[in-house]
Design a protein that fits this description.
Blueprint lengths: L1 E6 L5 H7 L6 E6 L2 H9 L5 E8 L3 E2 L1 H10 L3 E9 L3 E4 L10 E4 L1 H6 L1 H7 L5 E3 L3 H10 L3 E5 L1 H7 L2 E5 L8 E8 L9 E8 L7 H11 L4 E8 L7 E8 L5 H13 L2 E9 L3
Parallel strand pairs: 1-2, 1-3, 7-8, 7-9
Antiparallel strand pairs: 3-4, 3-11, 5-11, 6-9, 6-10, 12-14, 12-15, 13-14
Length: 273
C-alpha cells in the first residue's frame, strides 16, 4: 500500500495525476495547499506527493518551485503530463446570465482568462485553493460559477454550463512526484537543478550556459527566480536532458560547483512519455 499526498480535495487534476501513476494499491492523502503536500511526505504521513509544476499556458507553478528549493528537502522521483480541459460549472439550474462572479484556482483563472473576459465580462474572479474547492463553492452558492474539471462537478453536485473553456487547445500540465533520493538512470532521463551564483556580474549566465554547451547537454528549461535574500538577487532553475550519473552531466556539474555558490539537484528522473 502506497500513500500519495496530492492537492485536494477529491476531483482535482492533481488527484487525476496521482491515479494515473499506475500504482496497484494507493491510499490518497488530500491536502489543502501545495506546501501541505510537501509536509505530508517529509513528516512521513505519505510515501509520495504529487504536485503541478508547469503549465503550457501559464508557465511554471512558482509555489512548487519555491517549495522545492527554499522550504523542503525532497527530490523529484518522476514526472507526468496530463491534458487539461476546464469546464464552467455552477449550481443546478444556473444560467450564464445568472452568474455574478467566478471562483477559480489562480492557475485555472489564468488558463481561462480570455474566455471569461469574452463571455462573462465584468464578473470578478476570486481565488480558491484548488479547482475542486472552487467547484464545491459554486455548487453551494447561487450566482457563483467555477472553473474546474467536469469530474469535480459530478462529485459535488454542480452542473456543467460550458465545456472546454481553456483559452488554448492543447492545454497540458506537467506534474512531478515527490519523494526522497534520486532515481537510478534509465538512459531517458531529465535532471532538474537550482543554481545560485556567488555574485551578480556580467557574463554570469553565459558562464553557466557554456558549461552545458561544452558537455553537449541540451537544456529543456531555464528560469530565474528571486533568492529571497535581497531585491535584484536571482537564482536559476534549469532542466536538462540526462542523469546526474551520466559522465558528461557529472563533469558539467562538478565544474559549476567550482564557480557557483550552490548547485542543488532537485531530481534526476525518467522523462515523461
Amino acid at each position: 500500500m502506497t500513500t500519495v499526498a496530492y492537492l485536494g480535495p477529491a476531483g482535482t487534476f492533481s488527484e487525476m495525476a496521482a491515479v494515473s501513476l499506475g500504482l496497484e494499491e494507493v491510499t490518497p492523502v488530500p491536502c489543502t495547499t501545495i506546501g501541505e503536500v510537501f509536509e505530508a511526505v517529509e513528516r512521513g504521513k505519505a510515501d509520495l506527493g504529487v504536485v503541478p509544476i508547469e503549465n503550457s499556458i501559464e508557465g511554471s507553478v512558482v509555489a512548487t518551485l519555491d517549495a522545492l528549493v527554499f522550504d523542503h528537502s525532497l527530490e523529484i522521483q518522476r514526472e507526468l503530463v496530463l491534458d487539461i480541459r476546464f469546464s464552467l460549472v455552477a449550481a443546478p439550474g444556473t444560467r450564464l446570465a445568472d452568474i455574478t462572479s467566478v471562483v477559480a484556482h489562480p492557475q485555472a483563472g489564468g488558463q481561462c482568462r480570455r474566455w471569461v473576459e469574452r463571455n462573462l465580462p465584468g464578473r470578478p474572479v476570486t481565488a480558491a485553493n484548488s479547482n475542486a474547492e472552487a467547484v464545491k463553492i459554486a455548487a453551494a452558492t447561487p450566482g457563483v460559477a467555477a472553473l474546474g474539471p467536469a469530474l469535480a462537478a459530478e462529485i459535488y453536485g454542480a452542473e456543467v454550463l460550458e465545456e472546454g473553456v481553456q483559452d488554448y487547445a492543447g492545454n497540458q500540465t506537467r506534474f512531478v512526484v515527490l519523494g526522497r533520493g534520486l532515481q537510478p538512470r534509465t538512459g531517458h532521463d531529465k535532471t532538474s537543478l537550482a543554481l545560485f551564483m556567488k555574485k551578480d556580474k556580467p557574463g554570469a549566465l553565459l558562464m553557466i550556459l557554456s558549461e552545458f554547451a561544452y558537455g553537449d547537454i541540451n537544456l529543456t528549461k531555464i528560469q530565474s527566480r528571486p533568492t529571497k535574500r535581497q531585491l535584484g538577487d536571482y537564482m536559476f532553475f534549469v532542466d536538462l536532458e540526462g542523469h546526474v550519473d551520466d559522465p558528461h552531466v557529472r563533469l558539467a556539474l562538478d565544474c559549476l560547483r567550482l564557480k557557483l555558490r550552490e548547485v542543488k539537484v532537485l531530481g534526476s528522473f525518467p522523462v515523461a512519455r
